[in-house]
Design a protein that fits this description.
Layout lengths: L6 E5 L7 H9 L3 E5 L2 H11 L3 E5 L7 H11 L5 E5 L4 H9 L4 E4 L4 H11 L2 H26 L3 H19 L6 H22 L2 H4 L11 H11 L4 E6 L4 H11 L3 E10 L6 H10 L3 H7 L17 H11 L6 E6 L2 H11 L6 E6 L1 H11 L1 H6 L3 H14 L1 H11 L3 E5 L5 E2 L2 E4 L12 E4 L9 E4 L15 E5 L3 E4 L4 H8 L3 E2 L5 H4 E9 L2
Parallel strand pairs: 1-2, 1-3, 3-4, 4-5, 6-9, 6-10, 8-9, 12-16
Antiparallel strand pairs: 7-18, 10-18, 11-17, 13-15, 14-15
Length: 517
């Protein structure tokens, strides 16, 4: 490890007695500068800008705590390690309040000093080396998982594994990022083949299909409610598994995770289809046939998610469930604050909440140049999600729900994927505008890596016209039209889209949270 650029400031009024330690550090190729009083330490911090400060707590003149205050006032990012003989709780609390990085109790030994340096100076380098090495060691195992995956459960395990590495590698100086990106591309290509081979059979062969959008109420929520449990069913749209892992630590203060499951979104992975399927317990074709007044066709200008409350009621009626229920939709912070005020008097066992922030974030990410810069990759997208969740009333909403003793089932209607490659498609003027799937007549796309459904009824989708078909993008592709193809290919590249076939869009979190006592 290269230490010759690491500069240590050691401030102690008995610095001569510490000469053996200084020689030891210099032999390790550290640069050590010294001070015998607080004022000199403050001046050296300004002129020399050390990487770390070892600061004696008990010095004449300016005390260690007073020196600490001055150092932090001018250079708050310099880590300061307090060295003290005094183990009084009050002194330690004051030092921690002044944001010391660490403290050591005299007498110290060389091993303690080295461990302190590794912890506070070399941690990032050590972590990067360890993480890179660990991923390299697991790379072949993940490739084998991808090559041999035959069930949806195995694909979910792959998504969890890739997400874990995506998050672990985001905060280190990693040479493995490119390898991980390639491995995810490989996984999504194989996953698309798996979906192309099996999806239609889940609806036509009478076999038990995996847990999908129309099954959430029947197979997850109703059994809980039948046991007398009180539930908040929270749907955050466009909410990927990695975004769940990002906000999980924020919720851990109020909830225990009792089930960290996944389920499979139906196709298209879009609000009109997937979310309406959740709330109705029906496939889109069934909604259109049974409740035509609640189904909005692709070509209609009306909002596609305006009938969710009514669809929930139809499902409760169909299954003869007598639970009292409520429905809330949160589009803006003030909506959330109003709902929080209503929670105190809430008595209903089933409470459905739709939170639309992630959807707004993904759309603004597409439309706004500033948002493109703020969320230019998955790590930045997760960071924005975390910041929103932490600083908006949404976290306070969850806290209040936990205080009221409600269990939470947290999920989404579908995820998103960052698109990269534009595919040329030709269709008539009535073809829908979504970039990841198209429905219409006479659709023509010569690409191989797409899924074409010529008989939509077989997979529970309505057919706007007799000759209409659906075409789905796979991987990170997206559709573009011949007019201004190059412009739109560039404009939409690296934006987060949904509607197609990828693990990020289809394999989505289904989390059960139990309030902490």
């Amino acid at each position: 490890m290269n230490n010759d650029k690491i500069k240590i400031l050691w401030a102690d009024d008995e610095i001569d007695l510490l000469r053996p330690y200084i020689i030891f550090l210099e032999q390790k190729e550290y640069t050590v500068i010294t001070a015998t009083n607080g004022q000199d330490a403050i001046d050296l911090c300004r002129s020399q800008v050390p990487n770390i400060v070892f600061l004696d707590e008990n010095m004449p003149g300016l005390s260690g705590l007073e020196t600490l205050q001055e150092i932090k006032a001018g250079q708050p990012d310099i880590p300061v390690v307090m060295i003290t003989k005094n183990e009084e709780e009050q002194i330690m609390e004051q030092a921690i309040g002044e944001k010391i990085t660490d403290y050591l109790i005299k007498p110290v030994n060389p091993s303690q000093i080295l461990l302190c340096l590794k912890k506070h100076i070399h941690q990032r380098t050590i972590l990067s080396e360890h993480t890179n090495r660990s991923y390299r060691e697991e790379f072949n195992d993940i490739s084998y998982m991808i090559d041999t995956a035959r069930t949806l459960e195995e694909w979910m395990a792959i998504e969890r594994t890739l997400t874990r590495w995506d998050i672990e590698l985001q905060d280190v100086d990693s040479s493995m990022r490119e390898m991980l990106d390639m491995q995810r591309q490989q996984a999504n290509a194989a996953f698309a083949k798996f979906i192309s081979k099996n999806y239609e059979a889940w609806f036509t062969q009478g076999t038990d299909r995996p847990l999908m959008s129309p099954d959430i109420f029947k197979r997850v929520l109703f059994p809980m409610l039948d046991k007398g449990e009180k539930i908040f069913f929270v749907v955050i749209d466009n909410f990927r598994y990695d975004q769940w892992k990002t906000i999980q630590p924020l919720l851990s203060e109020y909830f225990n995770v009792t089930d960290e499951g996944m389920y499979t979104s139906i196709l298209p992975t879009a609000t009109q289809y997937a979310r309406n399927a959740i709330f109705s317990g029906l496939m889109p074709l069934q909604i259109q046939q049974m409740f035509p007044n609640l189904w909005v066709e692709e070509e209609e200008d009306e909002g596609k998610n305006l009938n969710e409350k009514e669809l929930v009621k139809t499902q409760l009626t169909r299954y003869r469930k007598q639970y009292g229920s409520s429905y809330f939709k949160i589009n803006e912070s003030d909506f959330c604050e109003r709902i929080i005020k209503q929670l105190k008097g809430l008595q209903t066992p089933l409470n459905v909440v739709v939170i639309n922030f992630i959807d707004m974030l993904s759309h603004s990410r597409t439309d706004s140049k500033m948002m493109r810069e703020l969320a230019n990759d998955e790590a930045a997208y997760r960071s924005l999600t975390y910041s929103w969740f932490k600083h908006s009333p949404t976290l306070d909403f969850f806290r209040r729900v936990a205080q009221l003793g409600y269990k939470v089932v947290l999920t989404t209607d579908h995820g998103t994927i960052r698109v990269q490659n534009s595919l040329l498609i030709i269709g008539d003027k009535n073809t829908n505008t979504n970039l990841r799937y198209k429905v219409g007549k006479s659709l023509n796309c010569q690409e191989k890596n797409i899924l074409t459904i010529t008989n939509p009824q077989k997979i529970g989708l309505p057919c706007p016209n007799v000759s209409s078909s659906y075409i789905f993008c796979t991987g990170s592709d997206f559709f573009g039209y011949p007019n201004n193809f190059n412009y739109y290919a560039q404009f939409y590249r690296n934006t987060f889209q949904h509607g197609g076939i990828s693990m990020e869009e289809m394999l989505i979190p289904l989390i059960t949270l139990e309030p902490k006592k």
